[in-house]
Every structure is written in C-alpha cells, then in structure tokens.
Amino acid sequence: MKPYLCNMSRLESILVHKGHTGPVYSLCEGRTPGTVFSAGSDGFVVEWDLLKGQTGCVVRLGEPVYSVMYDASSGRLFAGAASGRIHIIDVGNLREERCIELHRQGVFDIRLSADRTRLITAGGDGKIFVWDDPDMTLNHAIKPDGNKCRQVIFKDEKTLLVCTSLGNIHEISLDPVRINHCWQAHQGGVYSLLWYSHRSLLFSGGKDAHIRVWKEQTEVLSIPAHNYAVYALEVSPDGQWIASASRDKTVKLWDSSTMQFIFRGDMALGGHNRSVNDLIWVGEMIASCGDDGKIVSWSVRKGDAVTGV
C-alpha cells in the first residue's frame, strides 16, 4: 500500500457552557479576547468567557434569534430574529437602540464589511438587504433566486457570495449592484460558505452532507464530509485548519491545504448530543453551539505528522 502522512492533531472539549433553555443557533465574537456571544430559540443573547463561563452580559429580546453579530468599534450588537426583525443593542448599557422590521421571515445571517461602512442581512424571505452603517439606511435590496438566503459572506469589499436553499451560490457585485454569477452547488440547499482568500478558494457545505471546494465557479474537490447537512465552515486564524459543524452532532477538523480529515469532536468527547448549528474560532480554540442548548469550548491539540499505510 502507498504510504501517506497522517496528522495526529486532535480536538478536546475543555468546557461545556449551559444556560440557554432551547436550541442555540448563532455565535459571534464577544467584547474581549476569549469571549463569544450566543443566541437561540429562548430569545436570549448571552456572552461567555470560553474558559470561565458567563460574563454577566445577558440581553433578553423576547423572541427566537437566528443570527448575531457584534461590532466592537461601536459597541453595538445586531441580532436577527425569526420574525425578520433586526434588533440593535447597545451592549454597554444593555438596552435596545432600535428595531428594524423589513425582512418578512427569519434573518439567517448578518455581516459587516471590513471597513464598517456596509451591513448585510440575509433573510428567509429570499432577500439580501445592504445597509449603510452606522445609520442603518437601506441602500439596496437584492432577491437572488427567490429562495431562502441561508448565508452571505464578503469575497472582497465590493463582492458578496450568497447561498440559498435552492442549492445555488450567487456572486453579487455591490458597485454597481448586479449578480455576476450563479451556479448550482449542492442538491437540496447550501447552508454554509467560507471564502479562503489566501488561496482564492470558496468552500461550501450543503444539505447533501458534502463540502465542496470551488475555484471561481469550477468544482475542484467534493468530500462526503458528514452524515447530515453541513451548517458551518470556518478557517482558523493561522489558516492551518478548517472546522465544520453538522446536523450529525459533530464538529470536524480538516487540513486546509489538503482537506484531509484530522479529527472528529462528538458526544463521546464531551461534545453535542444534537445538531451542531454554528461554530467560531476564538484564537486557537473553537466554540460550537447546538440544538442541545450548549456552547462547547474546544481546544486543538497539535500533533506531529506521522507516516501511515
């Protein structure tokens, strides 16, 4: 048999955070290093220190929250609700500054441009709204294919990548606003996107349980990565790893250069016992959240590459 290199790195669950009374759908960076905000069906947004627990920052919105994003420069938290409302929270004073009602169904994703001039929201009503930040003036409304917009990410400051429940990925220019490309990526829907700028590659995760890698609109790799839908994909800060989260109750770690499978974090290792809905890298740690109401802090224990057969 042909020998191969096997990376012996692994995931270890270092702390499980409990407090939500229902599924947790979204995570984002918190106010200080090592912290995250979580949001879910119980209508609470909670900040956690991944090594200690709750920080005491808790906001009650009174309705299920699908997405959350914190803007450190303004101290504002944006929460996308199942109703379609966008709640804007002054975190320092723990009060709601504004509530915007424009999406007609749940807000699945919220993104802020690197220069903090544009905020993007993606809705179950099939619409992408482009807002001027910080005054939240609506700039553009885009309806890519009429189906639920599951995630939106920035490819660069003037280009968005959007995935929909129809299984399509859309590349959308913001200046001027137009759809540059659209292609069928997964059967049954696309739930997650990751733009890896260092290699100019797009990673997508779908309902078909596959992770696909794209160069422009050409598929260069397809991996049967999980047993069920892939809900989240994130690259580590150093670019070495890609982490994936799935409805199959697992978090998986991949080598970003080869997409070789490295390790699986599951219930037996102190992970989730229901669907894993989101994850985020926080330094060298991963935080994941799921339908079991838990936030799990994972540590990546780096190991040597060894030769296998």
Describe this protein's structure.
By secondary structure, this protein is mostly beta strands. The chain is built from no helices and 30 strands. It has strands at residues 4-7, 10-18, 24-29, 35-40, 44-49, 53-60, 65-71, 76-81, 85-90, 95-101, 107-112, 118-123, 128-132, 137-142, 149-156, 159-164, 168-174, 177-184, 190-196, 201-206, 210-215, 218-224, 230-235, 241-246, 251-255, 261-265, 276-282, 285-290, 294-301, 305-308. The strands form 8 sheets. It has a 4-stranded antiparallel β-sheet with strand order 2-29-28-27, with no helix packed on it. Strands 3-4-5-6 form a 4-stranded antiparallel β-sheet, with no helix packed on it. Strands 7-8-9-10 form a 4-stranded antiparallel β-sheet, with no helix packed on it. Strand 28 (285-290) and strand 29 form a beta hairpin. The N and C termini lie close together (6 Å). The model is unreliable at 1-6 and 304-309 (pLDDT under 50).
